[in-house]
Amino acid sequence: MAKRTDSNNAKVEQRAYELDEAIEKVRECATAKFDETVEVAVRLGVNPRHSDQMVRGSVVMPGGTGKVVRIIVFAQGEKVTEATAAGADLVGGADLVERIAGGWLDFDTVVATPDMMGQVGRLGKVLGPRGLMPTPKTGTVTFDVARAIADIRAGKVDYKVEKAGIVHAPVGKASFTADSLKQNFLALLDALVKAKPSSAKGRYIQSVTISSTMGPGIKLDPVVVAKLVA
User: Fold this and answer.
1) Mean pLDDT, residues 63-71 taken together
2) Which of 25, 48, 54 is nearest to 38 (CA)?
3) How confident is the model at residue 93 (pLDDT cuts 50, 70, 90)?
């Protein structure tokens, strides 16, 4: 692993890359024996400690994510049938709440109808730290469960700025075509720009780095990148 890391690091120059060039470099450095995830890290000019500067939302990647997602849905009545027909992996109510409270966490995404949030709220300490708590902001608290499930299957990615002001989000797999990775990258940047808080001052996109799971970080010029979605 050390030899591969050193070899990949040697391939990356200490400069800002153009987007197309950066994507090709990421794919070149993705030499692990598995299909590495390509991730983008964007440092934003916000202070997440201020509630009016929190950046959070979701975006559907036009090229998909390449990930098989296990979706559970909290629903009751006719919404159970709707969620099941839409392809949810598991649908339930109080029984599902108890199962998760007991330690079961074999899922990737949670959707809930608004009338179930009173019960789901009990799982805040379990789901919250794992980024699994459903919220209207990301479209996972909704009565339109079929649409929510379809968006997730199509490649919806949730994003949230961390305490350091950085958003980390996957934009696909190393096996994706360069064009698919580029379109996903631009979709994420566009979503972040549109989510800019009115209270954020100064340069909003401060730095952008793209990398694969085991590869080195490749820096892009934040000014040039911001212009791509202006």
Assistant:
1) 90
2) 25
3) very high
Q: How far is CA 44 from CA 20, 55, 57, 143, in A?
A: 22, 9, 14, 32
Question: Residue 104 — very low, low, confident or very high, per pLDDT cuts 50/70/90?
Answer: very high
Structure token pair of residue 2: 């050390």
pLDDT more than 70, % of the chain: 96
